[in-house]
Amino acid sequence: MSISCRVRTLVSDSETDTLSSGVIVVGQLVTGTSEQIFGTDTLKHLASALASMQAARYYGEDDLRLESVPKPTIGPGEVLVNLQAASICGSDINYLTGKTDPATEPVTLGHEGAGIVEAVGPGVETVTQDDRVVIHYVQSCGGCRPCNEGNDNRCRHRNSIGHHVDGTFAEYIAVPERAVLPLPDEVSFGEGSITGCAVSTGYHAVHVADVRPGDCVVVFGAGGVGLHAILWASRLGAGTTVAVDLDDRQLEAAAEYGADVLVNPDTDDVTDRVLEVTDGWGANASIECSGSPQAMAQAIDVLTGQTHYESGTAVSVGIQTEPMSVEYTDIREGQLRVSGDHNRAELGEILRLLSRGAVDVSPTITHEVPLEDIHAGVETVMARDEQVGRVIVDLTG
Ligand SMILES: [Zn+2]
Ligand SMILES: [Zn+2]
Question: Which ligand is nearest to the CA of 342?
């Protein structure tokens, strides 16, 4: 189709960018196809700037809206990812039930995701168009002291995807280059998605717990994070791994992930069982993933055995949303630690292990919903009236 248009001759890339931002420029009248007048690249910029996409946006407690929003555009150092899969995390449920709040409102929820790079901005070096990638929801600067020490999860300039900035419950996401890692061909987008949080949070917690070969490790809460803490503890050398959960179906899943001992506190005394399997000495490490203050108190208790001098490490992973009190005299040297988000290096290590087939995280994925049914997916996670691992949001539609 031939069109006529008044244009100013474009003389630099920066002016092309200006044009793609929607600034009207007027000058000489020319006639031709749109490609001849504007050039293919400029038209792509314009199409991208004007395009829209579907996203699930948080507007407050119990208020998640599926909306049409502008497709994100990228600048220098940024990557545009066409998301293929996301997954629903307990943190998203905490937002929707009002237990915690995202830092920004409204915001596109979701921090676990994987997809295909559609475009990269100037200066991006580590990924290119069509690369498969996992989203690292920690946006870090790469230059501050914690970043330089490998603790980008503690970056002084950190933003979290799906919390401070728009997340992965959308068809596209624009992120800094440091917020993606290559996804090996052997790993599916769904597996890549859960690796960005549930799998890696459990991995980090096992590191924080300093699990050593032969240790007895007790994991409280066999949900998405807890199952992977069990998986990594057993793969990284624990002698005995104990899973504690109120739901027998989750305990069955824990057994598949390597738990040697299954304890339901409704019917069994957790500390007694731990003492039984440790010859009365107590656990070397406990990892609390449920967010229950009672479970955290028990996680401290299972470390104490026949003497009050030997001590293990209690690691709090599940977000405690209520105040918790502990008897000071029940705590020993070195016992209490908090494990937060994984770091970039750990995510890379896990992806390498997955690509080699060293672990299989796919059994955790028990449900899948398209983006338009995300409310049903959220309800599935909340209802827990069946065995629920990770619910994948299929974004390929
Ligand atoms: Zn998560
Ligand atoms: Zn930093």
Answer: 1
